[in-house]
């Protein structure tokens, strides 16, 4: 199966570099490029990409607004945010807007390929330590809300434990090793947590946990 990609960045050289590399992969197809958020929306509507590689800082419409609109669109492609800065204050906004992952532009090529395939498969890219630092940095500067008692009451003790570990950025294999259970069991619990809390993926779960004070930065869950 070929993954259709749309590259969104205001720098032509960056778009060209990504396109030339990504086109060397048999399972990837760059169907278009865009220089800002407005153009990204237009191109996405006509080209219907599976994954959008989204820059944050762009003229006319930034990556946050574009991500939000894409997430709400009929086609709703997966969005992988790419940025130059390891603690860009705008990235958290993009994750809340519906992005499925976050990666630095200078990440190894193999990491970029992995990220594209991970988000296309419906997972969220949260394992890099930089993403956890970003979320904790944001949450440390934001007064958390009270945990939503009614929603959490619907979770079993094991599901609450799973939510805390997901919020800490652990992958399913890492959670399985920590709890000494199978990956299939973890996957089942994660799916149940997402369904009960009306969450789309791991990104939304992490944002939900930090914004609602379920997990506090620097404090073990």
UniProtKB/TrEMBL annotation:
Keywords: DNA-binding, Phosphoprotein, Transcription, Transcription regulation. This is Response regulator transcription factor. Pfam families: GerE (PF00196), Response_reg (PF00072). Residues 148-213 form the HTH luxR-type domain. Residues 4-120 form the Response regulatory domain. It comes from the Bacteria. Gene3D superfamilies: 3.40.50.2300. PANTHER family: TRANSCRIPTIONAL REGULATORY PROTEIN NARL-RELATED, TWO-COMPONENT RESPONSE REGULATOR. SMART domains: HTH_LUXR, REC. The modification 4-aspartylphosphate is found at residue 55.
